[in-house]
Each structure stands twice: as structure tokens, then as C-alpha cells.
Design goal:
This is Thioredoxin. With 148 residues, the chain is an alpha+beta fold. It has 2 domains: 38 residues; 108 residues, 3-Layer(aba) Sandwich (Glutaredoxin), CATH 3.40.30. It is built from 5 helices and 4 strands. It has a 4-stranded mixed beta sheet. The mean pLDDT is 82.
């Protein structure tokens, strides 16, 4: 009887240990995700945007609003793509509600809209129904020409 009870205690301890390991993994993933999401840079003025485009070699502008569920869901995927495959591209957010002048200057009236600039020139424009794969393929060639 004691052996069965002892094995049950050991099994319970092993399960606790395994659950604790999984918990630590999840905490680490959530922490990394939050760090990724907090690296967002929000552009508020045309002057600021012009300065960024003049000084940065590669820039991705992500136009959306906080109320756009598609934009909210798609933004982390775009950030992960840029951070993993195209780390030299700088990611910037433009909120259409707070920066309508910037949106008008770049004809970005639909959300989400992605503009990619290489050497200060708009190279890629994607709006509304955007595929991560298509975005990756569109960015790949000019990125390789400039950075490799």
C-alpha cells in the first residue's frame, strides 16, 4: 500500500514539475511577445516622417487605427516578419485617426495599408487584403539588392 501511495506522490511531483516547466516557457514567450509589441514607433507629424525617410535606408509604414480588428490582428505578423527576415527595415506605425495629414499625403485611406520605402522612395504598397507571403516576396528582392 505504501509503495502505491509513494508512486502516486512521485507521479504528482513529476506532473507538477512538468507543468511548472511549461508555465516558465509560456511566461518567457509572453514576455518576448510584449517586448516585440512595445518596440512600436508611432509617427505623429509629416516633418518627423520626412526626416525618417531621409535618414533611414529602409522603412515600413503601417497605417491602421486602434478600432480596426484586421489591422490589430495583422500588425504582430508583419512585425515578426520584419524582425525575423528583414531586420534592417525600420517599422513605424501611423494611426489614421491621429495623423490624417500623413495618410492623405501618402494616399493611405484604407486600413491596413503598408508602404515600404527603400532609399526614401516608395517601393511597395499593399492595402486591405494583404498576405504575409506576398508581402515577404515583394520585399525580398529589393531588400537583397540593397543589403546583400
Amino acid at each position: 500500500m505504501f509503495i502505491i501511495f509513494n508512486n502516486a506522490i512521485i507521479n504528482k511531483q513529476n506532473r507538477y514539475y512538468e507543468l511548472h516547466k511549461l508555465y516558465l516557457i509560456v511566461v518567457n514567450l509572453v514576455s518576448n511577445y510584449r517586448k516585440l509589441m512595445n518596440t512600436q514607433k508611432l509617427i505623429n507629424s509629416s516633418e518627423e516622417l520626412n526626416e525618417i525617410l531621409a535618414t533611414q535606408l529602409a522603412v515600413l509604414l503601417y497605417f491602421s487605427t486602434a478600432s480596426c480588428s484586421v489591422g490589430e490582428a495583422f500588425e504582430p505578423k508583419v512585425k515578426m516578419l520584419i524582425n525575423s527576415k528583414f531586420p534592417k527595415i525600420k517599422f513605424y506605425n501611423v494611426d489614421l485617426n491621429f495623423s490624417p495629414k500623413i495618410a492623405a499625403e501618402h494616399s493611405a485611406f484604407v486600413e491596413p495599408t503598408i508602404l515600404v520605402f527603400f532609399d526614401g522612395k516608395e517601393t511597395i504598397r499593399k492595402s486591405r487584403n494583404i498576405s504575409i507571403y506576398e508581402l515577404e516576396e515583394a520585399i525580398k528582392r529589393p531588400y537583397e539588392l540593397i543589403f546583400e
